[in-house]
């Protein structure tokens, strides 16, 4: 039984009890909301309230479920707008809070579920435990837990603790909180293989490993994979189930892997192990932790709030405002669904799930250490907005927009060749069952991917017209923003500050996209032939251009902007790329203009013979970095660029039709030490068409978030050979 399934079983056990008392609560509430009242009526909820109260300010309810009963009743009686106000404190949800169409607000009068002014209510998918601790074996303390309890995550005084694991966590390390991947990339070295968590000698020490987990990086560092330990085989090896979390799978990485939830590996402060059969929790407290007074919490639910409607009957005009979300289950074993031609798989859920909603908002909320995806917008949704939120330490992704694969014409779910004989050549989607016209704005998203590395703070797949604006995104294992494929374009990424990315993986960028649309195939020559015969092919899926404007990017161990595998119909302008390059692999119709690339240039990879690409009015710090480029002319236009280097850089690629009017010299930046890369009046860069763009508008603007948000290091990285920007070939074998 998986973590989510166990949570559902515990959740169902109390639903029947809840239903009988809700009817009485609805009758009580109806007495205090006058019919036909045009003013907004507030229903108050407080942790110390009672569901027998009328829900007034001085006599609040105790639960959100009862408050929503009051909202439904008010709407049934047409009693006017009704809002829900939550007083400060923790609300332990006994079951997922489902918001259906019947609680919808109206345009200009939304249903607002909000924090009371100046107060901090928290919605928890967990449970508080009252435990009697006593000394156990070694340094561990132990406590008896309620019968039948399953524990997947443990919080002590609000901090998520670590399951017993090997190798142990190490402070300030990246990969799985153990190894610094830079050791391998920059020095050619690597961790000590003697740390292997799956050595036969170590496995032999474990009395009963069933219920433990194996976590491993992909052998090429393209993400991660996870297995449940079912037991031990006759030959002493582990019986494993899993490994499906990567859509381009590989054997386990031979070094970057660890095991957890093994009793014999409980040996470090902050580690715990729960013996579910005996009902005993074992925990080694960190120095200074007084378990006699500590708050101990566990997780029960995978989803805290769900918006559940449909295109025909959506949930409309509902706002969640000023709330904190905590204690959502980890979902790495449920991450199974392949995305269209992507390297990634997904779990279609999150702490907040939208499915069939329109004109709904999550604003000024905090998501604190949720175990899986944070906010997931699935299938048909329109005009969903996420504004002013703090998302940190999530187990999987930040905000994901993922449509229905059945809306894609001629979909392919694995990396591989296209069948042009059966290809549907009708432009656009087959259905409208996907997110569109949605927004992520003014959000601080950091340290997502704590458990699942093949995720992103913002992920877009099979969607259209998604805007990501004024977000600060950093310290994440893979891309900061990922657009999985071109379906169906229209996205806008602007004024974002994205850095410290690709910390635990390789071959990626702060921004990453795969095209891999209907036209794309793995053989470039075949793609050339097909597009020459049918010039409309590259725009069948990405029917609207994708624009990346006015952002700041830094990725010391990858690409600033990585357009991979056929990404087409992009417009990239006014971006500052710090000490990392812009990569353009196969694709068509890319316009790259008025960008500044500091300490690097453009990586031009595997272009088609007639890509229609245009690169102009940019400032580059050095010559292009071409790989497997065509022998003839490159693109439609590569000219009038400025090279912050010697004259040969401006002339190096003229034999490929490039840079006939490009120049080189000193750009005369205003104040590069402070990150101001505007050029001074009289700069020669202005003569080739470059124009200054603002350097003070990247990232979050909300004062509370701006105060705590980091900004990228403005100093160049340590001097290392250019090839180290991509990881070396991974060692062979399991």
Topology of helices and strands:
Layout: H1 3-30, E1 41-45, H2 64-76, E2 82-86, E3 89-92, E4 97-99, E5 111-115, E6 121-124, E7 126-129, E8 134-135, E9 141-144, E10 154-156, E11 159-160, E12 162-163, E13 165-166, H3 181-187, H4 200-203, E14 213-218, E15 224-232, E16 238-242, E17 252-260, E18 271-275, E19 280-283, E20 296-299, E21 305-308, E22 315-316, E23 318-321, E24 324-326, E25 337-338, E26 345-346, E27 352-355, E28 357-358, E29 361-363, E30 366-368, E31 375-378, E32 381-382, E33 385-387, E34 390-392, E35 399-402, E36 435-441, E37 444-446, E38 458-461, E39 464-469, E40 472-474, E41 481-483, E42 492-494, E43 497-499, E44 509-514, H5 524-533, E45 546-549, E46 552-554, E47 559-564, E48 570-573, E49 576-578, E50 582-584, E51 590-593, E52 596-598, E53 602-605, E54 614-616, E55 619-620, E56 625-627, E57 637-639, E58 642-643, H6 647-651, E59 663-664, E60 669-671, E61 676-679, H7 703-708
Parallel strand pairs: 1-2, 2-5, 3-6, 4-21, 5-23, 6-24, 12-18, 21-27, 22-28, 23-29, 24-30, 27-31, 28-32, 29-33, 30-34, 31-35, 32-36, 33-36, 34-37, 35-38, 36-39, 37-40, 38-41, 39-42, 40-43, 41-44, 42-45, 43-46, 44-47, 45-48, 46-49, 47-50, 48-51, 49-52, 50-53, 51-54, 52-55, 53-56, 54-57, 55-58, ...
Antiparallel strand pairs: 7-20, 8-9, 9-19, 10-11, 10-20, 13-17, 14-15, 14-17, 15-16, 18-19, 25-26, 60-61
How does this structure look, described?
By secondary structure, the protein is mainly beta. Strand 1, helix 2 and strand 2 (82-86) form a beta-alpha-beta unit. Helix 1 crosses helix 2 (64-76). It is globular.
